[in-house]
Design a protein that fits this description.
heterodimer, A: six-stranded mixed sheet, four-stranded antiparallel sheet, 12 strands, B: nine-stranded mixed sheet, 22% helix
Amino acid sequence: MLKIKNLHATVGTTEILKGLSLEINAGEVHAIMGPNGAGKSTLASTIMGRSDYTVTKGSITFEGKNLLELDTHERVGEGIFLGFQYPVEIPGVSNLNFLRTALNSTRRYRGETDMSAADFMKLVRAKAAELKMDPEMLKRFVNVGFSGGEKKRNETVQMAVLDPKLAVLDETDSGLDIDALRIVADGINRQRRDDTAILMITHYQRLLDYVKPDFVHILVDGRIVKSGTKELAIELEEKGYADVA
Amino acid sequence: MTDQLSSAYAEQVDTLLGVIPALDAGRKQALDAFKKIGIPGKKAENWRYADLANLRAAVYPIATYSKHTASALEGDFAGKFVYVNGGLDEEQSFSSGCMSDVRVSHLSNFMVSNKNRASDLLSDGDGILLLNTALMREGFVFHVPAGVKVEKPILIHHVVGDADKAALHLRHTIELGEGAEATIIEYFSGDDGAYWLNNILQIRISENAKLNHLRLLMDGDNATHTGKCFIDLDAHSRYSSFTVSAGGKMVRSESHVRLLGEQANVKLDCIALAAPDQIHDILTHVDHAVPNSISNQMFRAVLAKKGKTAFQGKVIVRKDAQHTLADQTCNSILLDRTAEANAKPELEIWADDVKCSHGATVGQLDDKALFYLMARGIAPDAARAMLVEAFVTQVIERLESDTLKMLVTAKLNQWLDTYLRGNR
């Protein structure tokens, strides 16, 4: 589904990704771990086409399409979702309005018609209930007044509604207590299907206890230096990056 | 130049003498005063953001009355008064039972039976006001008697058409008796002629009375709109004003409020949507003359390419006006680096036990928020429109009436469709 080949990316004049390669197929759950500054968030941002990052070399294809030719919102239309490490607060825009606009934008991109208001409400309420979100929160402004855990749960509700083919989750577990972590993990697990893929970018192996990855990669200094299974994550936790990478 | 203008305008005054006899003396005096000061220039105080070169360069003949069907404003109104080029169009107007207690008149008629009220009309001020005094031809005169509460809004629609390079000088008054309540919507629209609409409204709100005032300034693309509102508030009265400035080429809108009685309360909110090459110069002047009164102002502007706005907000708190509460916020968003937003808050405080604040910000749309929206599949233009809508909606939410909220939101969406969503 996702093929990244020899990706080099800079922010400003600094090169952060220095030849990163990665392949993710449908039905797979991957985890990327790495020390601070390794390029984890840069990878997520580059997959989404954030304008502060420039790809200088290499390629990213998604289901055969050259992703680098598409704008951010188009990549979302193709079926990619980014779970933010720091979800943004948007005063004045309600969660409902935001979600409905987002969903219909991606539907239009794919040539589908807008979802009816009634169907949309049913969908959102169902997904919110599955993830134990108080429906009242949907009327509030996006992430305004939400705790860290509530913001991350909001991300998973959005993911559930948008139902992406590939979900890239950027340090989704940062700042969560055990209860919040369980809810977020539940949301991620509900997204696991034969036709979807998940890429978790994480610091700690704790999340991987709840969302068991098929593959674990270690990202150091802009490249993937080692790949393995869940055992690799445990080894990392025991020995640290220096020893394992 | 002032001499040429003055003699041309003197001729216009001559043609108006005798039309409304009670106003004749005032007209002549105003013209004499105009001869000395002329149209305000950029060096005149409070006029540095406006561009009235066109008014200084040419004489504007008085627009003739005309037949014009206005594009209607949808709504459930107590009454609707459509003025086309300053003349009341009876066919498009109506007054329902809800307003049966309201005394509606027009300047020309009113001054026939109320000659002594001519002195109530303001005649001292800048060149714009002086010319209005000299050349005023018509306007509405509303009196809501004591205790009368009109639930539904009263719509006054000023339409201008076929008045290229001509002027309309209109003078209106609204009076609310003690305990009266009303909602007035003033809607200005016009064709693309380069007309000059010179509109002055004098309002008196008696004790315990409440007036809600929605002003939709949506003049034609090449119009010059100079508007002044003078509002006097007695004790325990309330004036809530909401202005949408989204039309015209050069708009100068002033609100002058005097809080003359204790517990008087004024709210002045405004959203300015500056399209390319438009200037919106919004000025407020709030005079806290007595103790325990409240003023609250929120101004938000959104500027497209080469748009220009200015918010000049002066609050004066006089020596005896203890326990005044006065708040002013001005926020502007520039959608393009060629846009220019100005904020000039002024607080002149002479009392020593008051709570006054002001704040001003000028900036762009939040990049992080934009990326977040795009990262959820929303295209860049739609994302910008969403953030602008959120920014402006926070002012619209301060309107108490759902009817008014809907009207303003509809106008906002029209503007967003044209200038942000690219649907022109």
